[in-house]
Design a protein that fits this description.
alpha/beta, single chain, Rossmann fold, globular, 12 strands, 362 residues, 15 helices, 40% helix, six-stranded parallel beta sheet, 2 domains
C-alpha cells in the first residue's frame, strides 16, 4: 500500500530529476538495485542519477535505467567532496533518496536542495535532518533487501518482482566463458574473504566443504576475491589441490573487474561464501548461495529466496555485528569453532538435492 504522505508530496511535485545516494557497501548497493526499474516505471520521463563509491562504479555502468553516476571518493580530498556537493546542487534534483543514512550522505542530500528528500529509519549521525520524509518500517530489524524494497512499496509497486540488473558486455561474458572452459561438471565458486575479521570462516573449513563437493559430487572449484584477499585464496587453492589433484581448481582472486566477476557468478552453479558483497551479487543474479554467517544474521543480512542455504553460528554472541569479537578480540572467535563443517556440508547436500546438479565422481 502506498504511503499517503509520500503520495501527497509527489502529487504537488513535477519529478524530472531523481538522485539516489547509495555509495556503499557492495552488498547494500546490489540489494538496492531493484529500485531502479521501479523508479523508471513510476517516473518514466525523469532523469535518474546515482551517487556511488568510485570502486563500485564499474558494477553500475551501463544500467538501462541510469543516466549518470556521480562518483564519491571515500578517501578523497576535501576539495573532491566539496566539488561533489557543488555538482549535486547544480543538477537541481526534484526527488532525492538517501539510502546510506550517514552524515556524509545527509550533507549530500541537503546540498541538492531538492524539494523532496526521502530517507530511511536506519539514518544516523544526524543524516535524517536532511530529509523531509522517512520511509516507515525501515529500521535495523528489517532485512536489508526489504528495507530498500519498502520504497517500492511506498510508491505503490511492491507487487513487482524485484529485478537486479547488472549490465555486462559481450567481452565480459566471453572472458568468463574462456576462464571457466577447463572446468568440468558443476562449478562451485568460493569466496573465502570478507572485510570484517569476524565474518571470515576459517579457510581450512572452506576446504573441507569444497573437498566434499569435488569428491562426492564431481564439482570443479573457482576461487574468487579481491587483490587483498589473495593470501587466503592462495592458501585455499593449495589445500584443495592437495585433496583432489585430478580436479582443476581455478583461482581468479584479484583478476576480475566487477563486470567480469558478475559474468563468472552468473555462470557457476553454487557460490560458497561468507556474508559479503559477492554473496549478494550472486543471489541478485539468480545463482544459488551457500552462505556462512558468524557475526551477522542471515535473517537480516542474508539474501531472500528458498533457492539458497544460509547457515549461522549458534553461540550466544551470534549476530553481534561487531568487527572484533566482543569477548576475546582477535585471540579466539568461538563462533568459528561452533560453526562446523558438518553443518555446512549438510546444507551443501540440501542445496544439491534441491537443484539436482549433475553429479560426477572425481
Amino acid at each position: 500500500m502506498a504511503n499517503a504522505n509520500l503520495d501527497r508530496r509527489l502529487e504537488a511535485l513535477e519529478v524530472r530529476r531523481i538522485c539516489v545516494i547509495k555509495p556503499s557497501a557492495l552488498g547494500d548497493v546490489v540489494q538496492s538495485l531493484p529500485l531502479l526499474p521501479v523508479l523508471h516505471e513510476r517516473f518514466p520521463n525523469a532523469r535518474i542519477d546515482w551517487v556511488i563509491n568510485q570502486e563500485f562504479s564499474d558494477l553500475m555502468s551501463g544500467h538501462p535505467h541510469l543516466n549518470e553516476l556521480l562518483l564519491f571518493h571515500r578517501r578523497g580530498t576535501a576539495r573532491q567532496y566539496i566539488n561533489l556537493l557543488h555538482d549535486l546542487r547544480e543538477r537541481q534534483f526534484d526527488l532525492v533518496f538517501d539510502l546510506q543514512g550517514l552524515m556524509r550522505s545527509g550533507l549530500m542530500a541537503a546540498a541538492t536542495g531538492a524539494p523532496l528528500r526521502v530517507g530511511l529509519e536506519t539514518s544516523r549521525e544526524g543524516a535524517g535532518f536532511a530529509c523531509h520524509l522517512t520511509i516507515p518500517q525501515t529500521g535495523k530489524g528489517m532485512p536489508a533487501f526489504q528495507r530498500y524494497w519498502r520504497i517500492a512499496e511506498e510508491l505503490g509497486f511492491g507487487d513487482r518482482q524485484p529485478q537486479t540488473i547488472v549490465h555486462t558486455a559481450d567481452s565480459d561474458r566471453a572472458w568468463a566463458t574462456s576462464e571457466l572452459h577447463a572446468l568440468s561438471g558443476p562449478i562451485l565458486a568460493i569466496h573465502p574473504g570478507a572485510r570484517w575479521m569476524t565474518k571470515r570462516w576459517p579457510v581450512e573449513k572452506f576446504a573441507v566443504v569444497a573437498n566434499k563437493a569435488m569428491r562426492q559430487y564431481g564439482f570443479s572449484v573457482v576461487i574468487l576475491g579481491s587483490k587483498g584477499e589473495m593470501p587466503v585464496a592462495n592458501e585455499l587453492q593449495t589445500l584443495l589441490q592437495g585433496f583432489v589433484s585430478r580436479k582443476t581448481v581455478l583461482n581468479l582472486t584479484g583478476k576480475t573487474t566487477l563486470k567480469q566477476l558478475t559474468a563468472v557468478l552468473s555462470s557457476v552453479d553454487v557460490v560458497l561464501t561468507n556474508d559479503s558483497g559477492p554473496m549478494h551479487l550472486a543471489a541478485g543474479l539468480g545463482t544459488s548461495v551457500l552462505g556462512v554467517f558468524t557475526c551477522t544474521s542471515p535473517a537480516v543480512s542474508g539474501p531472500p529466496g528458498d533457492q539458497h542455504e544460509l547457515v549461522a553460528t549458534q553461540v550466544s554472541c551470534a549476530a553481534s555485528y561487531k568487527k572484533q569479537c566482543p569477548h576475546s578480540g582477535r585471540s579466539h572467535l568461538c563462533c568459528m569453532d561452533e560453526l562446523s563443517t558438518e553443518r555446512v556440508c549438510a546444507a551443501l547436500v540440501r542445496l544439491i538435492e534441491k537443484h539436482q546438479f549433475h553429479t560426477r565422481a572425481a
